[in-house]
């Protein structure tokens, strides 16, 4: 068999994803299939039939000789203890894990808050939040075959640094390489509802000192929701739901330490997520009925397969604490994808009560059968080492296990302490041409780029695969009306979206990575309502993404042409290798910075129409090495600006240049220095500051909505201005979509989650 036969010769994107991401060397499709399946004929058939597909790390890494790479997507690092040694030991653990290809989660709730007394030169600690940038920097520094690692940083809602944690993403250049989430409890959410005070308290064991802060719970929640509306972060982890609804809630020896970067895997210290997914769209017959018997067989195949991979991959975990945790708890994560496609094939509208009920039935049936298979494995090979009989008294078990499964577990125990999760499936679902996870169809169509022989790139409207199949069968075009059961994320009320996730959570003992996409005109109250609804419906977490938020920035485009059949031209992008000339009417701004070794003058010149940075000059007012360096840096930054590189990307690079000793000395002696730890970082901050000032000037000039904040350069165009997604793929530069709790690219298959 060839990959063209497997994916379809017309699925050029899927074939390209397989070639670039999962094939090793020059191996054939059959060789790849043997490697990934471990020679298991049942697994081979399930993959060929597109009913089952392992996670990306397994597809890429299993069976590869001579490399130190993990089969697990992500880990949770043991929370650092309240000591400088533990804090920096955690950075070491992150670095080692990233080097093996894993992402990480880390919780900072054990660290003392800002102002707590310490018995060293500092006298007072800088607080838990102050160490977040260091962890983010470590994530930036360690490469993973062309990408960077993924990190989740969490903090408990009782911690006195909570408000600083919530605000960290609003600071320019802060913690850019991590997701952040607040661990909230039922008590906190109840205090929000009741509008009562919330006490945040921390006692240091070393000194006995207790630091306490009090604020209105509703004010904290409002601030969190406002920042999420603006920045798509922080997220919320409903910690009581996480701790209470699983197979381990009654085990006194078990404790969750945090979650992985996409939050679908709450894990103990050292725990890992080993992932695979079942394609539900492959289980709908020609009459539109769901084939449960085939589904159960695939669940059996998936659970057994993940256990095989778990055993094979045990020596490949980066750290001993990870190997110990995986051995003791044997957590696996079988999930689903293609839910939206399945519902369309069944002629069920995604947001209908019937569709939600059907998904609840599948979820709970999957849970029951997965536990039954794990009990059979326990009969064959023994239960996981830390298994206790309290499992059968957990709320999750009681909700999902039938009599046969209960009897099996009572007799033999379970081979796995965790079985099911719904992870982001952006890359593998794009490869297969199906919808990701439990997400609705993101959009009816998307823009496909075609390489042009001319100086511009051109775009065409391409139907989403499930739409295209129906269109081909019924002779429809992109402009034609489709039946009511074809529905995308923009048409679904968020309450129904939450209800769908709640239906799936009933049968998932881990958690779910899923995104509620809100339109640009959604309000902060809408964000609040989604979170409250998620809590009330028993969710363990949820991702909210508002189109056009500050995390995206904006793209200014010409909106005159509404003809869907017309080829669209991207006006903001420069052709590869093209350097624009400076105009004569640039607007200049300047800043005088105080560095570690004197003054630094920064001049920046902007396009008066679109506000883009065009030219910069940096002057130290002296001679020698530093002055020459500034001249060279000026020319390089100017070149990048005229090549179309956005200012935030430039700033990120300037931020990575480290600490200058003179800066450190001057700061230590309490002299005022400009924001940063070296001259390049101070320059980056100044350029962004002036650029934002320029955007405000344009807002006033063109009478643009003053609520809009601009975070990325905008292209020149006429006065017809609209806001569109400008979050770009780091591999191909095309817009990213936000689904399944992750960022994915429909043009090249990139996924931030791997």
Specify the structural class: alpha/beta
Helix content: 25-40%
State the CATH architecture of the domain at 75-244: Alpha-Beta Barrel
pLDDT below 50 for ≥5 consecutive residues: which ranges? 451-455, 553-573, 704-726
The share of residues in extended strands comes to 15-25%
Count of beta strands? 28
How many DSSP helices? 25
Rounded Rg? 26 Å
Order of strands across the biggest sheet? 13-2-3-6-7-10-20-19
Q: CATH top level of the domain at 75-244?
A: Alpha Beta
Quick check: average pLDDT?
Answer: 86
Mind summarizing the main beta sheet?
8 strands, mixed
CATH topology of the domain at 75-244: Anaerobic Ribonucleotide-triphosphate Reductase Large Chain
State the distance separating the first and last CA atoms: 26 Å
The assembly state of the depicted protein chains is single chain
Shape: globular
Please describe what this structure looks like:
The protein has 754 residues and is of the alpha/beta class. The model is unreliable at 451-455, 553-573 and 704-726 (pLDDT under 50). Helix 15 (353-381) packs parallel to helix 20 (494-505). A hairpin with a 2-residue loop joins strand 27 and strand 28 (742-744). 38% of the residues lie in helices and 17% in strands. Strands 13-2-3-6-7-10-20-19 form an eight-stranded mixed beta sheet. The chain is globular.
